[in-house]
Amino acid sequence: MVKLSYERPVIQKLNTGSMNKFGTRTEYAPFTHIDNVAVKDLIKDYGSPLFVISEQQIRKNYQQANRAFRTRYPKVQFAWSYKTNYLNAVCKVFHQEGAWAEVVSIFEYKKALGNGVPGNKIIFNGPDKTEEDLELAVNNNSLIHIDHFDELYMLIELLQRINKKASVAIRVNMDTGVYPIWDRFGFNYENGQAWNAINKIMSHPELELNGLHCHIGTYMLSAGAYGIAAWKLCDLAVNIKAKWNKVIDYIDLGGGFASANTLKGSYLQGSDIIPTMEEYADIISNTILNFGFKPDELPTLFLETGRALIDDAGYLCGSVIANKRLSDGRRATIMDFGVNLLFTAFWYNHKITPAQEFSHHTEDMVVYGPLCMNIDCIRESINLPLLNKGDQVVVHRVGAYNMTQWMQFIQMRPNVVMIDTNSKVHLIRDKESLETMLRYEKLPLHLEKIDL
Ligand SMILES: *Cc1c(COP(=O)(O)O)cnc(C)c1O
Known about the structure:
Elements: E1 33-34, E2 37-38, H1 39-46, E3 50-54, H2 55-70, E4 76-81, H3 88-97, E5 100-103, H4 106-114, E6 122-124, H5 131-139, E7 143-146, H6 149-162, E8 166-173, E9 187-188, H7 193-202, E10 207-213, H8 224-244, E11 250-252, H9 270-273, H10 277-289, E12 300-303, H11 307-310, E13 314-325, E14 331-335, E15 352-354, E16 362-368, E17 377-385, E18 392-395, H12 402-405, E19 416-419, E20 425-429, H13 434-438
Parallel strand pairs: 3-19, 4-5, 4-12, 5-6, 6-7, 7-8, 8-9, 8-10, 10-11, 11-12, 14-16
Antiparallel strand pairs: 1-2, 3-13, 13-14, 13-18, 15-18, 16-17, 19-20
Bound molecules: pyridoxal-5'-phosphate.
């Protein structure tokens, strides 16, 4: 018989006012398997913590989004947003499904080329493109999305020097009723800057203006904002046709659709309030279709959806290091993963589920990571059953941005595995080690010897 561990009794104040109308959420069932693979086996084979990606979920998300748009609009093309998750295995699943690549740096650009994406199916966004980067993109016939006038002038100078033409679009920023406006990227619609950039481009024969782009924000809870964004890009397209007699090939509405995560401070669960993919698709396609384009001049709709296609395909499995009582009596649990791996914990109240059977006695607790850093807090308050040292948990919906924004601070990045559609597990990124770190360090000769 296992000796039951003793817990010092605590007196807790009952907080009758803090329930919302759906009651306090706790997890009632353990989350023991991901795509039919046992969490305990994953951790046994690949270590803890461990990122797990479900290939099946990625494909399902992609197909559902693609269907939502294609059934409402005749010409749709998704481009996978590399910075949301640029592990090659993840990108390749999207490319197999038919997504082009959307990149925001030359590093990502080269990654997309390396993944076999043809140059003319790479959308090159971002404010930081050097002349060298632009030359590579021009030679590969990529879709260059210009962010500011300095980039525009640099590109014109480059094209005149190498005597070539380039296909370009401009990024437009605008008021869509969601604040703050992301006006640091691209050219502003309302103050005429975008129209000015368009006229400059149209008057230069080395540039071919094929598209209009915007990316109005991320985790956008308002589908209506996309209606406004689509309207403003259509307005520019129609004005370009009227003044320059040039038909715009494509309108690119960027990314930003919300995933089902819950924002910190949100009264309701994310999954209960986010617009559906169909709602986003409805408002965007209605706006463009009803705008007044001639049938043969209807622009292709590009989408650079990131977060909404990958978040719920990613899990972080981890283990309990210790439990302790804070000075105010709250229970605290320390996990072997922290904000170094879960950057989005600053933003979301991630759902965390125990991976084994548990008692139904629950308590509000703080969940910390292992870093010696006070801000290393995964959840400030979560109602969970009591967890013991060594127990395992699964953090849900971590597929977006964590595997690109993770930081190396006193701990190494762990293994990442992908479970394929036949429930076979593949290691897709090796864990880092001391050697990984030391590879980049150099020691001056006079510091080699120490004598303590
Ligand atoms: C980050 C980014 C995206 C993807 O945004 P999500 O919010 O993850 O959908 C798309 N386009 C551009 C230009 C971006 O910078």
